[in-house]
Amino acid sequence: MSFLNKEICDGDNPDLTEERRTATFDTDRMAQVIYGSEKFAARRRQITKSISRIPALQDTKPLAFMTREEKITEACRELDVLSDHWEQLIYVNDEEEALHLHREVIGMEGHPFALHETMFIPTLVSQASDEQQEKWLGRARKREIIGCYAQTELGHGSNLRKLETTATYSPSTQEFILHTPTITALKWWPGALGKSSNYAIVMADLVIKNKSYGPHPFIVQLRDEKTHQPLPGITVGDIGPKMAFNGADNGFLGFDHFRIPRGNLLMRHNRVEPDGSYLKPPHAKIGYSSMVKVRSRMAMDQGLFMAQALVIAVRYSAVRRQGFLEDKSQEVKVLDYQTQQHRLFPSIARVYAFIFCGLETIQLYEKLILDVNKNGDTSGMADLHSLTSGLKSVVTHFTGQGIEQARMACGGHGYSMASYISEIYGVAVAGCTYEGENMVMLLQCARALVKAVELVEEGHPEKLSPMMAYLTKPSVTVDLTVGPEAYVKIFQLIAKKQAFKATEQLHKFMVAGDSRDVAWNKSAVELTKASRLHTRLYILKTFIRRVESITDISVKAALTDLLNLHLNYELLDVASYALADGIMSSTQMDFIKNQLYSSLEKIRPNAVSLMDSFQFSDLQLRSVLGRRDGHVYQNLFEWAKSSPLNQSEVLPSVTQYLKPMMEKSKL
Ligand SMILES: CCCCCCCCCC/C=C\CCCCCCCC(=O)SCCNC(=O)CCNC(=O)[C@H](O)C(C)(C)COP(=O)(O)OP(=O)(O)OC[C@H]1O[C@@H](n2cnc3c(N)ncnc32)[C@H](O)[C@@H]1OP(=O)(O)O
Ligand SMILES: Cc1cc2nc3c(=O)[nH]c(=O)nc-3n(C[C@H](O)[C@H](O)[C@H](O)COP(=O)(O)OP(=O)(O)OC[C@H]3O[C@@H](n4cnc5c(N)ncnc54)[C@H](O)[C@@H]3O)c2cc1C
Description:
Blueprint: H1 14-21, H2 27-34, H3 38-52, H4 68-89, H5 95-105, H6 114-127, H7 130-141, E1 147-150, E2 166-170, E3 175-179, E4 187-188, E5 199-208, E6 211-221, E7 234-238, E8 251-255, E9 258-261, E10 271-272, E11 278-279, H8 289-319, H9 338-375, H10 381-409, H11 411-415, H12 421-430, H13 438-457, H14 484-511, H15 516-522, H16 524-548, H17 553-573, H18 575-580, H19 586-603, H20 607-612, H21 618-621, H22 632-641, H23 652-666
Parallel strand pairs: 1-5, 2-5
Antiparallel strand pairs: 2-3, 3-9, 4-8, 5-6, 7-8, 10-11
Helix pairs in contact: 2-3, 3-5, 6-7, 6-8, 8-9, 8-10, 8-12, 9-10, 9-16, 9-17, 9-19, 10-12, 10-13, 10-16, 13-14, 13-16, 14-15, 14-16, 14-17, 16-17, 17-19
The structure holds ligand LPWUO67N and flavin-adenine dinucleotide.
């Protein structure tokens, strides 16, 4: 079956048009699967269309040619235009629509509202009492104030229990006194803190009567609402340029005995009474919920980052012709090379897999917040914490790898800022660090795994959560030809073996006399391996579940090819564990390799449409190389001509230095 996809093909590069004609599914239908519903996929298209009708939002000067100050100014200009059209463009307070709007118009390099939407408002929703929400949430949603999330300090990010900023309660004035006692206590890194925000959620150690209660969230006004000047007692500024994400003003912040009213401690779950008595929350880590919120989004957001890089690389690979295969009269599209397919298609599969996980974890977080806020039920917190800790680490790692391969797949042009892939890479890999450094978070996931293994060893398998149930599965011989379930069984065995081995190692060191912390550190590499396998198993199972639920036959068939590629690629990638433990034979390995190669061939005709289905506009992609029309050479030449260096034939640097130098050399 062949579809001419709905987008207009006329005028596009004929090689791309040919790819779109031969696709076996409809990209609008695929978009419904990617974005979770027909309604949201349609809304995205509608929003994109509405944006294209606002002249002030069309791309002006390419971001690559802008200074940092120009990028920040441009993002603010766009936000101002958006603000004027907000209610016509999206349903107010619809988070997904707001994110789409920002991604499309402002892109990924950061902007003053990035943390306002993703952490400031969510913290007010999850941590502020009804009364506090009344006071601040409405103002935040109407954008009367701009907020950020200030937690990390110069000296501490991973180890929250050692944050040094203090919030000391003064019963006589019913105030908290915020203070930065040392240079390492300066808040350092928070996005949009430096220059844009006038409010912040500040995580500080709550101190009452000389007793420390650990990090708690406070809402703090940083700047005068009229003049935007920092308030007395506050030192705030920008931390300087970064590897990417330079449209954002990540900042520093210090307090000099800065007083805030008692009512600025967010008090939905804990309270400090006027006399200083403390009511503790129903769960010790409830104050960490905003981090869980962002982590629960990361599989989706990282999947979309990698998708952008792959749209660019796949379209380009269908247009770029170099070398010959059978027909010596015409060079082939580089996408026809097996190595190119092997470089790109497993990442396409991962993009889909990650996004399906993201759809699930975003919903899990929403449910958790309802359970906690409405019913005080915190029982889901531990599972979501361990799941999202593992997932953010695995997904960001593979996303970085996938984007870098996409860059290389574009040859020399991939290295140019015209491809925009380096910026996507720089922004995406920040995710390996923010919201918890990946190793640290893998070790959080390992805590849950070790606990589960210990339950099995102690004879209490009935206490395992559903995600851990595979730890009780007995070893079996598996026939891989029966389909996805066989792959799951092998993966389960591999993950189970590693979880038991790592736990055994931990116990061995403890029995030999090490404390649990020291034994943990001596086993940490093995523990992180167990966490990765556990998480990859979850990703694999989610992918299978999602594909099974699809009703559109042609979409399902295309995704089944992608799923088969994923299953074989993943199993091959962890084969060393399976071979070492005798879980798989070398004959099975050969079978997997052959299946993998044949999946590449099956996916080839659909590659461009699998990526077109993300329906990123050229405005959002910001890539000269990856534009929908595929006229890469003309577009590249125009872009290069617009470089500031090409606005004059002879640069001042030549007149001032090179010419005199050459003249001197002649003497
Ligand atoms: C990103 C979304 C935006 C999308 C927009 C897209 C548009 C694109 C343009 C923008 C692009 C990017 C946007 C950038 C956004 C950047 C945001 C970045 C923001 C930040 O980075 S904020 C700072 C984040 N910081 C961290 O994550 C710190 C990491 N550290 C920790 O979380 C903790 O210290 C810890 C490692 C979890 C340890 O905590 P602690 O020492 O207190 O606890 P223990 O290890 O002793 O464990 C005790 C016990 O508690 C359990 N536990 C820990 N945390 C939780 C939890 N959250 N929930 C439930 N349970 C928890 C732990 O498991 C232990 O249990 P056990 O005893 O084993 O039973
Ligand atoms: C782009 C970007 C945006 C950010 N935005 C914000 C924001 O809005 N608000 C905010 O508060 N913060 C923000 N941050 C800060 C970020 O959350 C922290 O940098 C992150 O949590 C990592 O902490 P760290 O810098 O202390 O790393 P470190 O912990 O110092 O990591 C250094 C090394 O030590 C290792 N390590 C540390 N502890 C352990 C351990 N227990 N076991 C094993 N290894 C360990 C790590 O694995 C790593 O290899 C942002 C950071 C970036 C890059």
